[in-house]
Each structure stands twice: as C-alpha cells, then as structure tokens.
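Now for one specimen:
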Amino acid sequence: MGKAIVITGTPGTGKTSVARALAKLLGVKHIDLSSYAIEKGFITEYDAERHTYVIDEERLVKKIVMIIKNTPGYVIIDTHYPEIIPCELIEYVFVLRTHPRVLEERLRNKGWPDRKVKENVMAEILSVVLSNILNACSNVEVYEIDTTNRDPVEVAEEILGIIKGVKKPSSRIKIDWLSALSQEDIAYYESYGESVSNE
C-alpha cells in the first residue's frame, strides 16, 4: 500500500508547481486534486458567486484512496482541502505559506475577482488550511514552508531533504503573518475582512 505526501496551502502559494517538481525528484505519481475532480466529473455544482466548483467529496475520496492503496511508494497530492484525505494514508503534509502582499499580487495577476482574492488572502493570514489539517490529522507530520519569492524547485528540494532526513526544515509550525505584518498591512487587511463580510 502506498502513502500520500500532501502539498497544501491557500490557492496561489505554489502547490502545483512544487508538487510537480517534487514528484519529478522522487519519480512518483502526482495528482492535482482540484483538476482531477473536474476532469473526472467529481463535481456537484459550480458556485458562481465564488467562482469555484463544489466537489463531490465522497466519490472523490473513494477514488483517491483506491489510487493511493494501489500505488507502491508515494503519491504526491496537491490540494487546498487536505482534510478530506484519510489521515492513515498520509505520510507527510507540507503547508506552503506565502506573504499576504505577494499572494494578493499573484491572485490578482490570475485575473481572479476581488471577492475571491480577498477571501483567499484572509484565509492565508488566518492560517485556515494549516488549522484544518492539524484539526483533522493530529498524528501526521505537518511542516510549514515559506514559498514567498522562492523557486518551486528550490522548495521541492527542501521538502525532499526533510523527507530523507538530511535537511532541517526552515520552519515547522511557526509562520504567523499577523505578527509579521506591519500596522499598515493589518489595517489594510482588516478592511478586506469587513468588505467580504458585508457583501
């Protein structure tokens, strides 16, 4: 039976690029969970307000479990909802983090609507993805990796070093954007939270 290495984080933190690079380094299978769900039809509806698909979690998880169990070695899975993967099938979780200002720029460059950008930047500031996986899988090894202005291959090599036990992680569970942000940034993002809640 195989095991999953989960690359997760807020959209825009570099999950897919890093996961592809890591899969190449390890010579293993990579699944972009969102793209896979759309491609295979594991979708219940399209949320036009948030410009996103709603996945059929039950059907998707059954398929992913089957793939992991039938694959020798590792399967690299990148997703922003890692908590749906059964914890017993996960070997490592790497939560990619990106400074909110950089993340905002990346998401706006993707052409995302204002509301979607704001929601995701706030999710990054509040460590939503990290909290979700820690609450779901308390016994899994979880590491945070700061990807701000870093090359995906460099990040993948750091992750590979951690997996092989030859590299000490630059961070584990200690990235706190609220502490790192300036007062100006905090005021700016507080207005983000207010505008999203009022829409």
